[in-house]
């Protein structure tokens, strides 16, 4: 099965991608993983990407797409994959469609994790990271009464990208870039929305239920 997972920051894509891919025995492929593999492996594409990443710039579409093409051509992705973080916009989606068509393949389904803005802000702005062990706690979900890590005694702090104003900016970027992508896949008749609120296990159950008709 060939799946794309989309959703706003804080929707739980990484967590759900791991569970779904494991259930279906297909590789979970994220652009972050691909970038790290190419950079650490010293590939030509990795060297190109690193120049942008070191400057804090976005890696250009052509480099990202070339990396994704190479990854999808590997043996473990031949019979299926789950893409998390790609495509991010309509041009990338159109290119992915062409790549798969060259291999006489197509996407089976695009799962959209649906969660409202208030919940996203609550999830992300409530996160606190331990400065010693790196564990992430949540001021609401973990019932934290202090700024001390229960695991190691380190100090908990709020990362810059978890601050409310930054989260709101990330949501605006997502809506600008990805809302057209969601419509693109709706027009392709392969988009299925999944309610991403509630316990992780419940969200996973909803996603697997949506996939069940496609399982062979």
Automatic annotation (TrEMBL):
Q: Which CDD domains match?
A: ADK
The residues that cross the membrane are: none
GO biological process, any: AMP salvage
Q: What is the E.C. number? A: 2.7.4.3
> What does the entry list under GO cellular component?
cytoplasm
Q: What InterPro entries does UniProt report for this protein, alphabetically?
A: Adenyl_kin_sub, Adenylat/UMP-CMP_kin, Adenylat_kinase_CS, Adenylate_kinase_lid-dom, P-loop_NTPase
Q: Which GO terms describe its molecular function?
A: AMP kinase activity; ATP binding; zinc ion binding
Which of UniProt's keywords are assigned here?
Answer: ATP-binding, Cytoplasm, Kinase, Metal-binding, Nucleotide biosynthesis, Nucleotide-binding, Transferase, Zinc
Binding site residues for Zn(2+): 130, 133, 149, 152
SUPFAM superfamilies for the chain: P-loop containing nucleoside triphosphate hydrolases
- Which residues are listed for ATP binding in this entry? 10-15, 127, 198
Question: Where is the protein found, in the record's own terms?
Answer: Cytoplasm
A Pfam short name: ADK_lid
Where do the segments described as NMP lie? 30-59
Its annotated function is as follows: Catalyzes the reversible transfer of the terminal phosphate group between ATP and AMP. Plays an important role in cellular energy homeostasis and in adenine nucleotide metabolism.
Name this polypeptide is given: Adenylate kinase
Question: Which species is this UniProt entry from?
Answer: Actinomadura soli
**Top-level taxonomy:** Bacteria, Bacillati, Actinomycetota, Actinomycetes, Streptosporangiales
This protein's encoding gene:
adk
């Amino acid at each position: 099965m060939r799946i794309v997972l989309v959703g706003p920051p804080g929707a739980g894509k990484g967590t759900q991608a791991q569970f779904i891919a494991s259930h279906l025995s297909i590789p979970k492929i994220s652009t972050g993983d691909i970038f790290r593999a190419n950079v650490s492996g010293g590939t030509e594409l990795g060297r190109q990407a690193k120049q942008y990443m070191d400057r804090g710039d976005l890696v250009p579409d052509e480099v990202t797409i070339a990396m994704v093409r190479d990854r999808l051509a590997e043996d473990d992705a031949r019979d299926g994959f789950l893409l998390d973080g790609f495509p991010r916009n309509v041009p990338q989606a159109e290119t992915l469609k062409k790549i798969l068509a060259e291999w006489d393949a197509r996407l089976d389904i695009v799962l959209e994790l649906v969660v409202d803005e208030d919940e996203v802000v609550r999830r992300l702005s409530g996160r606190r990271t331990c400065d010693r062990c790196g564990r992430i706690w949540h001021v609401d979900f973990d019932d934290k009464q202090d700024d001390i890590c229960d695991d190691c005694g380190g100090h908990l702090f709020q990362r810059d990208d978890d601050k409310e104003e930054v989260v709101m900016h990330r949501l605006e970027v997502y809506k600008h870039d990805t809302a057209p992508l969601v419509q693109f896949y709706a027009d392709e008749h392969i988009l299925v929305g999944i309610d991403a609120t509630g316990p992780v296990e419940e969200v996973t159950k909803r996603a697997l239920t949506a996939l069940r008709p496609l399982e062979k």
